[in-house]
Amino acid sequence: MKMAKNYTLIAALTLAFASLAHAEEAAPAPEAKPDNEVSFNAAVASDYRYRGVSQTRLKPALQGGADYVNNPTGFYAGTWLSTIKWVKDGGGDGSVEWDLYAGKRGNITDTISYDVGGLYYYYPSNKLSPSANTFELYGQISAGPFSLKYSQSTTNLFGFADSKNSGYVDGQLNQEVYDGYTLNLHVGRQNVKNNGAASYTDYKVGVTKDFGVVTVALAAVYADTEAYVGNGKNLGKTGAVLLISKTF
């Protein structure tokens, strides 16, 4: 009887391993990404904050864009637009920011990645002097949920006179903390060259959740400056920002 029980156990284990191997063979392989991908995005924001400063006089904004990536090489390009108010508040004209960018991203090691490129901020018919139009080069290093980015302007920065080579340092942590909820922490330092009074540090604490239909982000944002004013409002003051977006 003891020998019979052993044979029965061996047979059962053999069947179990065979079933497991069959299940593994039957499991579908991860779908490979196509060489070229194009995506689109649309969003509505309760306030468009850029580097901590409101671009819409603390009012809502409509936003949208498109992105292309070549997966084998990591090269990408894209465009993005948002409604704004600060150009008119500064005495110019135009209510749109139009961004154009391109770059390359990839891996340095299994845990460290990079992203380098250029970004042109175009404000059609802004009529400011110096012009609000700005070009920046940027480089980013990421390790897991942490990233550190540096951007430097090769033109005057957003209409500030004699501000070429202004720089912005941006540190971020984006870490999932519970059931798809991602904690977003950010601190940045904007140096406006030859315009020390306009330099400042900004902070953000927020959370993001992808609900499938839309992605929702809620954050508290602050910039430690009173140099940016629109229609009598401090554009860097602490505020809550709600962003609802969709990528398709």
Work out the number of β strands: 16
Low-confidence stretches: 1-24
Strand content: over 45%
The 3D shape can be described as globular
Could you describe the largest sheet, including whether it forms a barrel?
12 strands, antiparallel, barrel
Structural class: mainly beta
Rg of Cα set = 25 Å
**What's the average pLDDT?**
91
Element string (H = helix, E = strand): HEEEEEHEEEEEEEEEEE
Q: Termini, distance in Å?
A: 64 Å
Number of helices, where a helix is a run of at least 4 consecutive DSSP H or I residues: 2
Measured as a percent range, the helix fraction is 10-25%
Walk across the major sheet and give the strand order: 1-4-5-6-7-8-9-10-11-12-13-16
Would you kindly provide a written description of the structure presented here, covering whatever features stand out?
- The relative contact order is 0.14.
- The chain is mainly β and 248 residues long.
- A hairpin with a 2-residue loop joins strand 2 and strand 3.
- The protein contains two helices and 16 strands.
- Strands 1-4-5-6-7-8-9-10-11-12-13-16 form a twelve-stranded antiparallel beta barrel. Strands 2-3 form a two-stranded antiparallel ribbon. It has a two-stranded antiparallel sheet with strand order 14-15.
- The N and C termini lie far apart (64 Å).
- The N terminus is likely disordered.
- The longest helix is centred in the first third of the chain and has 25 residues.
